[in-house]
Every structure is written in structure tokens, then in C-alpha cells.
Write a structure and sequence with these properties.
Biased composition (Basic and acidic residues): 257-272
Helix content: 25-40%
Number of helices: 7
Number of domains: 2
Largest sheet: 6 strands, mixed
Strand order of the largest sheet: 6-7-8-3-9-10
Keywords: ATP-binding, Hydrolase, Nucleotide-binding
GO molecular function: ATP binding; ATP hydrolysis activity
Protein name: P-loop containing nucleoside triphosphate hydrolase protein
CATH superfamily of the largest domain: P-loop containing nucleotide triphosphate hydrolases
CATH topology of the largest domain: Rossmann fold
Number of strands: 10
Structural class: alpha/beta
CATH architecture of the largest domain: 3-Layer(aba) Sandwich
Organism: Russula ochroleuca
Strand content: 15-25%
CATH class of the largest domain: Alpha Beta
């Protein structure tokens, strides 16, 4: 059961570039121990940046910010038991070398966690004789998940790592993570864009938009008619997919309103009367017709 605060962020503002607008603005969130929270938001909302900061991978220098996991500052007194799994791992040339999966897992301590490793090998349907350089992105992702999850964790930070998995493996993995979280009272913070099959997974949901929380950690499921949802004509018991889709549509409308006020626009430039220099160049040397 959820209990004391496990993840606490207060007054966090962060920018990748001091000369650019903040990527995260005034982030405040408190997640109880044992919770499983989904970060919902469009691409560029700040989900990955927040997870990387929590994992200690991006240094925060802004005054007044507090970033605590298990009561410890993630930069000054980083606590044990934090596992971060992100998409960038699969692009690392080291994990694309000619090494057998069994040897690879043993090299990172698989022999010390044989029971959990073997269960994950079955769930993720991994062949120990695969060679890392000769497998698909989805298979390589399975190896990453086995490697990252075979050691018991207290806090698990997941950033889109199920995107390459087929639907059966993903469902089995999420069932394992939910069971593991419940059994050990461990905490999960998970950013994803795939909401099918997730209805029974989270204890909380959040909504991020353009670097800020629109909706902070809120218990899931939401009430059938909820002030958080503008359109109460949706399904009596809306699914996570329906809610996420509505929130993302609202995000786009909000951004388009900001564009009318001067924010840089996206999409086609239909009001561009004069061709750009690149368009003029390519038209001149276009021999396809």
C-alpha cells in the first residue's frame, strides 16, 4: 500500500540552455511510496527531462529547488535502489557489439540475481544465445529491460522503454511490474505514449504541458464525471486512452492559441507568399519531371 512520500520535487525550474525558455517551470510533485504514476503529455512536454533530473542525469542549479527520492537529495546524497531506463540506451555502440546476451547479462551482475533474471528472461522472451549486434531494436530493448529490472529496485523511472515491444511482451511486462510494485511496496514513475492496456496499471496520473503540470499527481481512476475533464459527455467510465487523447487535443489547442500571440508556429506555412531560398534552389534543380 502507498505510504510516506517517496519522490518529492519542489520549486523546480530547469533550462537546457540559459538563453532559451525554461524546459521545466515551477514543477512541484509529491508521490507516495508504492505508487505507480503515469506522466501524460505531448512530445516536448518535459517528461523525459523530469525523469532524467530525478535519475541525477541532469544537474539542477536553480536556487530553492528540492529534488528528493527516499528523503535524499538526488545530486548530493543519491540514494541506492533507483533504476532509470530510457530509450537512449539502445543507441549506445557498446550494447551493439558482438557479445552473447548471456555473457552481457553476467557482465552486469546477472549471476547475482538469477531468480529475477530468469523470470524476466521468460517474460521478455529473450534468447540467451542472441548476439547483441545481430538482433532487432525490439529484441535489444528486451535485453535492456531484463538487465535493468533483474536487480530489485525501490524507485523505477521509465521513459518510453516499452515502445519497441510487441503487445504480448508489453502486457506481460506491465503485469510483472505491477505485481512487483505491490509485493515490495516499490514506486514507479512512467512516461509513455501508449495507453492501450494500461487501465489497471497506475495508481496516479499526471498531465504535463509545455514544461509544467496541468494536473498534478491525481489518484486513478478518475471519477466518471470529473472537473478535470472539460467534456463530461465522454464515456461514463472513460478509459485512460480516452482521457489521454482528450488532454493531448487540449494541449494542441492551447499551443495554437499561444502561436496566435506570437509563439513560433508549427505545421505548414500557408501564408508564405515568397518561396524560401531552399525551395527556390530545389525547384531550380528538380529533374524528376
Amino acid at each position: 500500500m502507498a505510504g510516506s512520500t517517496e519522490i518529492l520535487v519542489q520549486n523546480l525550474t530547469y533550462s537546457h540552455d540559459p538563453s532559451a525558455p525554461a524546459s521545466l517551470s515551477d514543477i512541484n510533485i509529491s508521490l507516495p511510496k508504492g505508487s505507480r504514476t503515469l506522466l501524460i503529455g505531448a512530445n516536448g512536454a518535459g517528461k523525459s527531462t523530469l525523469l532524467q533530473i530525478l535519475a541525477g542525469k541532469r544537474l539542477v542549479t536553480s536556487e530553492g529547488a528540492r529534488i528528493l527520492i527516499k528523503g535524499c537529495d538526488v545530486f548530493r546524497h543519491s540514494p541506492p535502489g533507483i533504476t532509470y531506463l530510457g530509450t537512449e540506451w539502445a543507441m549506445n555502440p557498446v550494447v551493439r557489439g558482438d557479445i552473447r546476451v548471456e555473457d552481457f547479462l553476467n557482465s552486469v551482475g546477472g549471476y547475482r540475481h538469477k531468480e529475477r533474471r530468469d523470470r524476466l528472461l521468460d517474460i521478455l522472451d529473450v534468447d540467451l544465445d542472441w548476439h547483441m549486434h545481430a538482433i532487432s531494436d525490439g529484441e535489444r530493448r528486451r535485453v535492456q529491460l531484463c538487465m535493468g529490472l533483474m536487480q530489485p529496485w525501490d524507485v523505477l523511472l521509465l521513459d518510453e522503454v516499452t515502445v519497441d515491444l510487441d503487445v504480448q511482451v508489453r502486457d506481460d511486462l506491465l503485469s510483472f511490474l505491477k505485481e512487483d510494485s505491490q509485493h515490495r511496496n516499490a514506486t514507479i514513475l512512467y512516461a509513455t505514449h501508449i495507453f492501450d492496456g494500461l487501465n489497471e496499471f497506475p495508481t496516479h496520473v499526471t498531465h504535463m504541458r509545455l514544461g509544467s503540470f496541468v494536473i498534478n499527481a491525481t489518484p486513478w481512476p478518475l471519477p466518471p464525471i470529473d472537473p478535470l475533464l472539460d467534456n463530461n459527455e465522454s464515456a461514463p467510465d472513460p478509459t485512460l486512452f480516452q482521457i489521454a487523447l482528450q488532454w493531448l487535443r487540449e494541449d494542441r489547442v492551447h499551443r495554437q492559441e499561444l502561436e496566435k500571440g506570437g509563439r513560433k508556429t508549427r505545421g505548414a506555412r500557408r501564408d508564405q507568399a515568397v518561396p524560401s531560398s531552399s525551395e527556390a534552389f530545389y525547384k531550380k534543380y528538380d529533374y524528376s519531371h
